[in-house]
Design a protein that fits this description.
heterodimer; A: alpha/beta; 10 strands; globular; B: alpha+beta; 2 domains; 9-stranded mixed beta sheet; elongated
């Protein structure tokens, strides 16, 4: 089966005053469906740029980015928007929930954008997803009434509610304490296993990255290493991470 | 989907309470002002219609000129009974028909004189005239006069009587029972003088009552030495004044069918046509059909003046409002840049972002303008009920009344609400476009 993400010799340059900054310098990467991959590297290494390109919110200066067989350079804004809506879910470092909508409405929002479901079908889908992330009691609370961990779980629910093929998370644990952060990673891992959704997340935290099944190290805009790990031997898996994730704030 | 867009808009407005309140208040006040100005304009229109249709015109007028020789023209129609019959049989939506004689005179009192348009009226056949004309208190026109009405409208049946208006009574320094000398020029150029007695003094009916006087028909006929089958104009009153123009068209066709010669429609009062008709090369009778608006077209400058001032004022306020809305929307877009980036990343199209921000402005616009519109209507109705006196005579002349009259119509409120809601929406277009055009990648990572 063709990979969900195929990146070939991608270069991304940004103008910075009179200078041109090369954020990515000839990156090649292929990610298969169902993988749980982390893009690891220090700040400024190009992790976020790479995720932006995979997430179709940006296009490469040169090279090819293919998402589920579609080359993003060849798509117009409208088509990129449709691709994001139907195939990609996003989880942000700062949660990025719509502050004036409650938990239910935030999760429902992408479904409304997609259209095609009745109100009842949407409600069932949202309630099911909110239940999976353990936030049913907070269904009608606004983001400012939730803890950081809870907000990130809402973001996970929002990213998954449309059943996307690919979920991208840019430093999803960076604004959380270590226990909550690990619980969020475990929740993502659980969703990856249950829904067979491909997850790609960036981090520079070694404790977080060790829970990925694949770690792509990026340094100075180039892939430095690409290694497969055995998640089942990780401490989180041994201690029953799911229970911990649901107990976390 | 619309519900969520609406909810986002409403909640964002509530979140920025102070900004929303100030902007909403400004919008409401401007809408209120517009409704009140429209009510004033409508009040003026109604006053003008009332003045015109009481003093000088029917809803439709079948008048005309009779030329006995090439260089002259008399504003009259002959064989009035036949014309009335045609009108009564062929006017759709007819209420009633009257006919009045017309003349022009110099009117002299013991201490002063004035020019006046004379109208010969049969007071018994015009009950509406009595309902519209209100007699003035003697103290309104006479120094040291009694605070009571003196004289009776019914006395206008008496030969050689006259009804004048308060402003004329002041100018001529006369009251009920006093004599006036009326000097006219007959159709063959002779001067004729008649003494008449003031039997009633009416409250002024705007600018037009400055030069209108009413006498019995027979007095006018006698003064001008006319036959009894002549008149100045057959005045047709309809159940719906709005139908005037259409019905005039119908009557024109009927008169042409019956062999009458008609003048081309000229939307001016009869006295402005004298010079032209006098110079025309024809003899005999030609009918001239007009509607009430034509007979008071010379007063249109009042509307032009009021509307110009109103729209200038509103224009300035509109600019302020537009700048306020744009500024407020820019702030809102800047504050919510990251939210825009997020929803664009999730999959909202550009036009969705555009609609979201514009809906916010539209919600504010509709709520604020509705409140403002209703406030304007309430204030206008209250002022109209109070009918405050207008102290300055020049302003009275412009307003065509000695009291302020505002008339509110549902159409005006709807017009004001729709107009300002549209302005609000258009003012928000530019900031909303700016939000829609944001690159998701830049917006997500903004510090906002």
């Amino acid at each position: 089966m063709a990979p969900i993400v195929r990146i070939e010799n991608v270069v991304k340059e940004y103008p910075l005053g009179n200078l041109v900054v090369r954020a990515l310098q000839g990156v090649d990467l292929s990610i298969d469906r169902g993988e749980f991959t982390t893009i690891a590297g220090p700040s400024g290494s190009g992790k976020t740029t790479l995720l932006n390109l995979i997430g179709c919110v940006d296009v490469p200066t040169s090279g090819v980015v293919e998402i589920d067989g579609d080359s993003t350079s060849k798509l117009h804004d409208k088509e990129l928007t449709r691709l994001r809506l139907h195939k990609i879910g996003f989880i942000f470092q700062s949660f990025n929930l719509v502050s004036v909508l409650d938990l239910f409405q935030n999760v429902e929002f992408p479904l409304l954008l997609q259209g095609g479901l009745t109100k009842k079908e949407r409600e069932l889908r949202v309630r099911d997803m909110v239940d999976k992330v353990g936030l049913t009691p907070q269904l009608r609370q606004r983001p400012n009434e939730l803890s950081g961990g809870q907000r990130q779980r809402v973001a996970i629910a929002r990213a998954l509610v449309t059943k996307p093929k690919l979920v991208l998370a840019d430093e999803p644990t960076a604004n959380l304490d270590s226990v909550t952060g690990l619980a969020i990673i475990e929740l993502m891992r659980e969703m990856n296993a249950k829904e067979s959704t491909t997850f790609i997340f960036s981090t520079h935290d070694p404790k977080v990255m060790e829970h990925a099944s694949r770690i792509v190290h990026i340094v100075d805009g180039r892939i430095h290493s690409d290694e497969r790990t055995d998640f089942l031997s990780s401490p989180l898996a041994e201690t029953g991470g799911r229970a911990e994730a649901q107990a976390a704030p | 989907m619309n519900t969520v867009y609406f909810e986002i808009a409403a909640r964002n407005l509530l979140q920025s309470k102070r900004r929303t309140f100030l902007l909403g208040l400004a919008l409401a006040l401007v809408t209120m002002l517009l409704v009140m100005l429209l009510a004033l304009s409508q009040g003026l229109t109604e006053t003008m219609i009332r003045s015109a249709t009481t003093l000088s015109a029917g809803h439709i007028n079948v008048a005309g000129f009779y030329k006995a020789n090439a260089n002259d023209a008399a504003p009259m129609v002959t064989n009035v009974d036949a014309i009335r019959k045609i009108v009564e049989e062929n006017t759709p939506g007819l209420d009633y028909v009257v006919d009045r004689h017309r003349g022009w005179a110099r009117v002299v009192s013991e201490s002063s004189s004035t020019q006046a348009g004379l109208t010969g009226i049969d007071i018994r056949s015009e009950p509406r005239f009595g309902q519209t004309i209100q007699l003035a208190l003697e103290s309104d026109y006479k120094e040291g006069g009694r605070a009571e009405v003196v004289g009776r409208l019914e006395d206008l049946e008496q030969p050689d009587s006259v009804l004048i208006f308060a402003a004329q009574a002041k100018r001529l320094e006369v009251g009920v029972g006093d004599a006036l000398t009326v000097i006219i020029e007959t159709l063959n150029g002779a001067r004729n003088t008649t003494d008449v007695t003031v039997v009633a003094v009416a409250k002024d009916l705007g600018m037009m009552s400055n030069w209108s006087m009413f006498l019995p028909k027979q007095t006018i006929l006698d003064m001008y030495r006319l036959k009894s089958d002549t008149t100045g104009a057959v005045m047709v009153y309809l159940k719906d004044i709005e139908e005037s123009e259409k019905v005039m068209g119908t009557l024109r066709e009927v008169f042409v069918d019956r062999g009458y010669v008609l003048m081309d429609h000229d939307p001016q009062p009869f006295w402005m046509k004298f010079e032209r008709v006098s110079g025309e090369d024809w003899l005999g009778q030609k009918l001239d059909l007009t509607i009430w608006r034509d007979e008071v077209s010379f007063l249109e400058f009042v509307f032009t003046a009021v509307n110009t001032v109103s729209f200038f004022l509103l224009g300035i306020l509109l600019v302020i409002i537009v700048v306020g809305i744009m500024n407020s929307m820019y702030m809102s877009v800047r504050e919510r840049t990251r939210e825009v980036g997020t929803i664009r990343a999730i999959g909202m199209p550009k036009y969705g972002v555009l609609g979201m921000f514009m809906l916010e402005a539209v919600v504010l616009g509709i709520v604020a303008t509705t409140v403002g519109g209703l406030m304007g209507a309430a204030f206008s109705a209250a002022i109209d009920a109070w009918a405050p006196p207008v102290p300055v005579e020049a302003v009275q002349a412009i307003l065509m009344s000695d009291r302020l009259h505002l008339a509110v119509r549902p159409g005006q409120i709807i017009t004001a609400i729709v107009a300002f809601s549209l302005v609000t929406m258009l003012a928000s277009l530019w900031p909303a476009l700016k939000a829609a055009k944001m690159q998701p990648v830049d917006a997500i990572h903004s510090a906002g």
